[in-house]
Design brief:
The structure is a homodimer.
Chain A lengths: L1 H7 L4 H8 L3 H9 L6 H14 L5 H7 L5 E6 L5 H16 L3 E6 L4 H13 L4 E4 L8 H8 L4 E4 L9 E5 L1 H14 L4 E7 L4 H17 L4 E7 L3 H13 L6 E4 L2 H14 L8 E5 L13 E4 L2 H16 L8 E4 L2 E3 L25
Parallel strand pairs in A: 1-2, 1-3, 3-4, 4-5, 5-11, 6-7, 6-8, 8-9, 9-10
Antiparallel strand pairs in A: 10-12
The structure holds a DNA duplex.
GO molecular function (chains A, B): DNA binding
Protein name (chains A, B): LacI family DNA-binding transcriptional regulator
Keywords (chains A, B): DNA-binding, Repressor, Transcription, Transcription regulation
Amino acid sequence: MTQREVQQRRPSIHDVASHAGVSAATVSKVLAGVTTVRPENAQRVFDAVERLGYRVDPLASDMRRAKRRIIGAIMPEFESEFFGSMVTELEGLAEQRGYTLVAASSRESEAREKEILARMHDWRVAGVVLAPVRNEHGPAAAFMKANGMTGVLIDRVLSDDAFDTVSADSAAASAEVARMLVGNGHSHILVIGLAEQAATVRARLEGFRTQALALNPSVRIDVITSEVSVEPLRASLRDYFARGERPTAVYSLLLKGTLVALSEFRRRGWHCPNDISLVGFDDAEWMQVTWPAIAAVVQPVRQIASEAMNLLFRRVEGAMGPPTARLEPCQVLMRESVGSPGSGPHSGGGDRQQPPLS
Amino acid sequence: MTQREVQQRRPSIHDVASHAGVSAATVSKVLAGVTTVRPENAQRVFDAVERLGYRVDPLASDMRRAKRRIIGAIMPEFESEFFGSMVTELEGLAEQRGYTLVAASSRESEAREKEILARMHDWRVAGVVLAPVRNEHGPAAAFMKANGMTGVLIDRVLSDDAFDTVSADSAAASAEVARMLVGNGHSHILVIGLAEQAATVRARLEGFRTQALALNPSVRIDVITSEVSVEPLRASLRDYFARGERPTAVYSLLLKGTLVALSEFRRRGWHCPNDISLVGFDDAEWMQVTWPAIAAVVQPVRQIASEAMNLLFRRVEGAMGPPTARLEPCQVLMRESVGSPGSGPHSGGGDRQQPPLS
DNA sequence: CAAGAACGAAAAATCGATTTATCGATTAGA
DNA sequence: TCTAATCGATAAATCGATTTTTCGTTCTTG
């Protein structure tokens, strides 16, 4: 009966100690790799660990430790490929260093973001990777600052005076999109976006505008943005087209906008690239299999995740010095959704074109 | 100086106790809502909590407690909308009950799945929501059983003799797809899938086949599956078409397959639904904005998540009794990618059709 | 050979909570 | 009036590890 009860509950460090005939402190030292233990005793500890199938309880272990081996990750959402793979990467990197990642979605709400952060602070996480809803000046970053938390800000940020930041080089990528579109002869381009406040969205817009005007000073760039959600953006876009505006290309500053643009094109019976060209910031798996394939800016998820974790652990280990602001280069994928203006609906070369067989 | 140090480190229950002039045990009781405390003392505790900004340390709290308030979630991946929103839902539901969710991706590997599970067992999680890579008979479920862990299996499962299971009603949804396709006159249908071993994929196949044959005994159903990954599937599909096989409709049993099918259609210059019809299991946001919109089976993510958590917490709270196997109904969305066979490439009514304005 | 340094391991304190045992004061009952 | 029961609160034990302190041996060294 006692046998059974002992087997029910997981062995603790004391069980290992008594089986090995040493003290719990010695077991702890052996497992921590301290060398001042007699080899004979160390072997007995290893044997007991093996026999009992003992594993350290990370919760109890973190209890005594100054820095708990937990990393928090807060993303605006998990539904998109970008943040989904971001969490996957972060989790893998945390695990590699023996840390546990606790991830939560702020669901695009700054209020929720702060609540989650408070809860992570309760857990006394060693560090936080925060992808803020809006930008680096939100209440979440302020909370982290006020409570002396260590963290890294990613994605919708440019730079901060307290935290390291890592994001895609939006401006450079947008400049390349400008070269692609203006280079193809487009001189009336619509840019759509959400939350112009977000530093990166502004960077994308400015990067695009500057480069486009440099290449062709007479290019016309219309901008439609919405603060709140996608629906107002959809309404504005609908209005814009209904007024008779006919840009030859659309550059969407974010994935949701690309979807909105596509559905509005659908609604009006327009085809890419014959009737209008389209480029989107943020790539997704489906974009290369649809007809036409959608040109897109690919964000370097792995690099961002890896760099963020490197910076974070440097700070966790006590590194001082001014915060750094990293920009990771993007890749711009030219695809069939971009053509030259004026190749009209019946000029061929559009989505009816037969792709080469391998 | 001492002032500052005190402010550096977060207040513990003892700090609250001394500020309130009571013992730590009393503070604990007040915060737990025990009523045997003099109202006067309770008030002083609340005041001290307020003044110090005290919050319970969940790690220390869970230390003493028998059941730790941590739930583990293991998904095959985070990149897709389905598992992404699943994690979001699960996290919200866990939070509602005061639990912390620790999520990890098995990256479609059973070996990794088991390792993650072992690590969650180390944390002594109260329960686990496992979406197995293959099915309920994998090593992960065996590990949970062997170690007396409580958990719920979701998505790629049908039923189990040890754990409650929750999944989409694949068979019923597939039967509806069969009605849709056969009802539209299709008599040669290709079904593609991955990992036929997965119980749900088999259920989808059988649900489809049974209903299709019931409606038209002479319907021809070809099946292409691949065990390993998507690439062999793509190769087989390419072979199949190269041999001159010309089904009039394709039913993909999973999202990856839908993408593969679309890209193969592209490669051959085929259009939906003129040249071939397409229905996919699993919906995604982009499917309704592409041209044509892709008909799809929508899985009830919220219901699955909610039911899984209900069942899990029932077990966590000690409920006994035989495991249940829930099937949540899906919704089948008819879209433009499905048409009638024989309406040939030049018969109109396909992806060139002008959608109604409004 | 005795004092001191070095070494290895055990004992004890600690982390921050919860829970159980204990204790003093008040009230009830005999 | 004295004992027993009740009540509220405190002290102490506990969870499972890590870290610091203490202690007994052995090895140096003057």
